[in-house]
What we know:
three-stranded antiparallel beta sheet, globular, seven-stranded parallel beta sheet, TIM Barrel, alpha/beta, single chain, 12 helices, 296 residues
Amino acid sequence: MAWIADAKLAAAVSNAGGLGIISAMNANADYLKAQIATARLLTDRPFGVNLMLMSPFADDAAEVIRSEKVDVVTTGAGIPTPYLSAWKAAGIKVIPVIASVQSARLMEKIGADAVIAEGSESGGHIGESTTMTLLPQVCDAVKIPVLAAGGIADGRGLAACLLLGAAGIQMGTRFLLAEECDVHPVYKEMIRTANDISTVATGRRFHGTTCRCLKNPFSRSYLKLEYTADTTADLLSQLSSGALRKAALDGDSVNGCFMAGQIAGMVCKESSAAEILQEIITEAAILLKGANQWVN
C-alpha cells in the first residue's frame, strides 16, 4: 500500500489490536525513520514495516529496520536473504509475502518466522493462485505459521481462512476506508462505489509485473499498450512511473493507478480502524461458534 500505509494508519491498527504495517515503498531512509518515529509517538504497541526488496533504497531501508529494531518486517518482490540474519539478530520477526508453495518452502528454509500466502484476489502485485487454493497447500507444505491475504474483507473471510489452516490474516483494501487512512478522497470514493467487477489485473504479459487495480483510464491504457506487438517491459514501466502517487496523493482518476483487491465491492462504509477490526473479529467468532450446525 505505497503512499497509503503510513505511520498514522499503522498506529491506529496496532492500537486497535492488530499489527499495523508501514510501507517503506521506494522511499529513502530518512522517510522511513520519520515514519517509524511518528508511529512510536502514536502507539506503544508492536507494529511493522513492509520492505519491497526491488526498491532502489532497499539496502538503506533494511538498515533502518535493523537499527530501529522494528517488531516485524514483511517483505515482497524478492528474497530477503541478504538482510535476514541481521534482522533476526536484532530480534525482528521476518514474514515474507509469497504467492506459491515453492516460495513458501524457500522462505522457511532460509529462516523466515512465518509467511503470508497472498492470493490473486489481492490488490497490488499478485501471483496466479487464488487464496482458497494457495492457502491450504502452503499450510500443508511448511511448519511455520501461515497468514492469509487476498479477498478478505469481513468476519466470513477471517473464519474461512482460519478453517483453511491460517494462523491469521492480512488485509489492505478494507482499510482504505478507515478513518485514519489519509488517502485522497477520490480514491476513497472509487472504493466506496466499486462493485464485484471493478478491478482488473494488468501486467500478465511480462512475468512478475502482474498488478490488480481499479478499472480507470490508466489501467485501460496500460492494458492496451501491454498487448501491442512491439511493447516492452520498459515501456510499461515508463507508463506506470509515479502512477501510485498520482492515485493516493493527487486523486488523479485518469492517470493514477488505484490498487485494490477484488473485495472492493464489499467495502462501502468509512469506519475507524478499531471498528473495522472489532466488526470482523466479532463476526468471525459468531460464525466459528455456530459451525457445529454443519456436523451431525
